[in-house]
Amino acid sequence: MKIDRKDTGNGTGTITITVETADIKDKYNTSLKDYSSKAQIKGFRKGKTPVNFIKKMHGHSILADTINNVMQAELNDYIKSEELDLIGQPIPSETEKDQMNLDPFKLEDITFNFDFAQAPKLDLKSGKDLGTYTTYDVQVPDEMIEEEIANGLKRLGTQEETDETVIENDLVTVMAVELDGKKVKEGGHETEFSVLVNMIKDEKAKKAFLGSKKGDSLDFDVYTLENGTTDDYVAKYLLKLDPEEAANVGKMFRGEVTKVMRVTEAEKNAEFFQKFTGDESIDTEEKAKDAIRANVKKHYNKESDNLLKGKIASDLIEKNPVEFPEVFMKRWIRVATENAESLDIDQEYDAYAKQLQWTLIKSQLMEQHKVEVSEDDIKAAARERVLSYFGGGAAGVDEAMIEGIIPRLLNDQQQLNQIYTGVEFDKLMNALMKEVKTDVKSLNTDEFKGVVDAYNEEMKAKG
User: Fold this and answer.
1) Which of 52, 118, 314, 437 is the least buried, fewest Cβ under 10 Å from its Cβ?
2) Could you please report the per-residue DSSP string of 32-80?
3) Which domains are delineated in the chain?
4) What is the pLDDT of residues 70-115, one digit of tens each?
5) Residue 180's CB: how many other CB atoms inside 10 A?
6) CA–CA separation, 217 vs 224, rounded Å?
């Protein structure tokens, strides 16, 4: 086996590996005999197929696999022994042929060329060098606490189906079909969902709902129906479609009222306060308000921390520029990305480079701060995500149900990757937050929302 490396500049280079006949001869013959012993080929008894016949029928693929296995093992060992910190994996040089010209009856030396790029070493700005950040102490108004209790009284109340005319607080289920002008669209999208009347934003639609009953039809714009919803929310929970699919569906729908559920509020007593807060020691409205305020405060503290983390990450990217070998990187993206033929590499390159820049910064900082993600960290984050499905708390939710959902969540590779990335980011940012200088500013909830909106617009402008 011969292996050589040639640097080509700007952190790039080419590794040349020559797999010699002596490196593969024994392994190739062993693979042929193993295949022959297991093959069931018409005209031959099992295990008695002549090796030359195997070579003729399957020798090319067996030889290719043998060569690739030997070559990949050598390449990996070389990278490890030379302590090369690479961007991704080496990719075949552009001069390489798409298919090896192999003769299964005549073994010859074969040479491979791989291009690579080394990850640049960064002289990182530390948290102490990033300047002073503002954190926010958000004041929770009494009206918000009253609203939380009011919503809790509805949520923990009773529901009964009724045929009477719809009133405020009723939960109405509609079977809706897409319209084309004033008529039902032929082959239009159909969906069924429920809407709480007092959450209807469109006043005209709300008036129509309030005057309706089971069996009635009414027209509405599905995107302006509920208060405080996004287009993605409408797509997922009302249209029951992916956002991309929803883009091809109209806004106007005709819905038939199929069910009306009347909500009777729970009685405001010790039992309600205990059930609503999930704490048996809370048996008065005053204690409940204190607990709710603390919980809401915790939410805003977390939001303030998330804002700080986002600003730190953004500043780290801005203050630690990285120059990547663009020509190599574009080739690497094409090779490493699924469905790369559908990508506009030139247009999307900056986003890839920025993401890779953050990956390098994060990796180096995690090593410096000795940040590690444990299995317990992952399980705790998964539990928190499950709790968020139930409004951020487990009150009224069976513990066995929560524990049953967590393993299913962690068995979903996409969800697991998201959780791992989130934990990794939080642990690193928590370490950096101890280094940066901060000033605390007191805000009300509306003022804080303005700060968050301004930050989001800033990040959107930065891309």
Assistant:
1) 437
2) HHHHHHH---TTS-TT---HHHHHHHHHHHHHHHHHHHHHHHHHHHHHH
3) 2-117 (3.30.70.1050), 158-264 (3.10.50.30), 272-462 (no CATH)
4) 999 999 999 999 999 998 889 998 776 555 678 989 999 999 999 9
5) 12
6) 18
Pairing of strands 217-221, 132-139: unpaired
Identify whether the C-beta of residue 64 lies closer than 8 Å to the C-beta of residue 104.
Answer: no
For the record, the structure tokens of 417 come out as 């990757």
Phi, psi at 87, each rounded to 5°: -80, 110
Structure tokens at 314: 């953004």
Which residue type sits at 196?
L
Q: Which helix (H) or strand (E) holds 285?
A: helix 285-319
Q: Pairing mode, if any, of strands 110-117 and 91-92?
A: antiparallel
- pLDDT for the residue numbered 358: 92
SS3 426: helix
Tracing tokens 């392994």 back to the chain, one arrives at: 27
Cβ neighbors of 281 (< 8 A, separation 6 or more) are 287
CB-based contact 394:387 (threshold 8 Å):
yes
- Which two three-digit tokens encode residue 264? 């009777």
Distances (CA, A) of 306 to 97, 131, 261, 333: 49, 18, 39, 31
Give the alpha-carbon dihedral of 303, 308, 312, 318, to 10 degrees. Answer: 80
First to last CA, the chain: 47
Euclidean distance between CA atoms 213 and 165, whole angstroms: 5
Contact 296, 144 (CB under 8 A): yes
In a 10 Å sphere around its CB, with 0-12 CB exposed, 13-18 middle and 19+ buried, how is residue 158 labelled? exposed
Phi, psi of 412 (to 5 degrees): -90, 110
